[in-house]
Every structure is written in structure tokens, then in C-alpha cells.
Amino acid sequence: MNFYRWMMKKHLDTKAPVGDLARDMEDDKEFPHDGSLDEILEYLEGKGACFGCMDACMEAWKQYERESHRAKARSGS
After folding, report:
1. Where are the alpha helices (DSSP H) in the chain?
2. Which one of 11, 17, 27, 77 is CB 3.0 to 4.6 Å from 72, fit for a cystine?
3. Backbone angles phi and psi of 16, in degrees to 5
4. What's the whole-number mean pLDDT along residues 6-32?
């Protein structure tokens, strides 16, 4: 599962900065759905995202990676 789909599944209804980010991602038809963290941060910066948004993205990415690694370990991949 890519980061975009993970955010939609995990944080779309979250009432925190990460939820705000997820909703903004959903509304932005140009958001890089399959982007790496660097590509996403560069995109957000280009859109004039505030520090809080960038921070929420980095924290969410860390959580996404932890959960992805655990899922791969469970599946034996």
C-alpha cells in the first residue's frame, strides 16, 4: 500500500494535523500518489505548505514506514 492510500485509510477522519493533511491530499488532484517522501515534501513546499503540515507529513511517513515494515515481516516478504 502506498503512502497516499495509507493516509486515506488511516487518517482521513483524524482530528489532528495529520488528518488535515490527509483531507488536503484527498482534495488535491495533483498530489503525487506514488511519490517518495522527498517528492511529497518537495511538492508540499512548492504549494507553500506551512511547517506544521510538513512536520505532520514527516511524522506520518515514519508511522507509515513502521507499519509497512511490520506488515512485510508478518507476511514473510
Report:
1. 3-11, 17-27, 37-46, 51-75
2. 77
3. -155, 170
4. 96
pLDDT at 64: 97
Smallest CA-to-CA distance from 53 within 13, 18, 3, 29 is with 18
Q: Is the pLDDT of residue 40 over 90?
A: yes
Global model pTM greater than 0.85: yes
Looking up cell 488535491 gives 28
- Asked whether 36 and 65 are in contact (CB, 8 A), the reply is no
Nearest to 44 by CA among 62, 61, 25: 25
Q: Nine-digit cell at 9?
A: 485509510
Q: Cβ(57)–Cβ(41) under 8 Å? A: yes
Closest C-alpha among 30, 12, 20, 14 to residue 56: 20
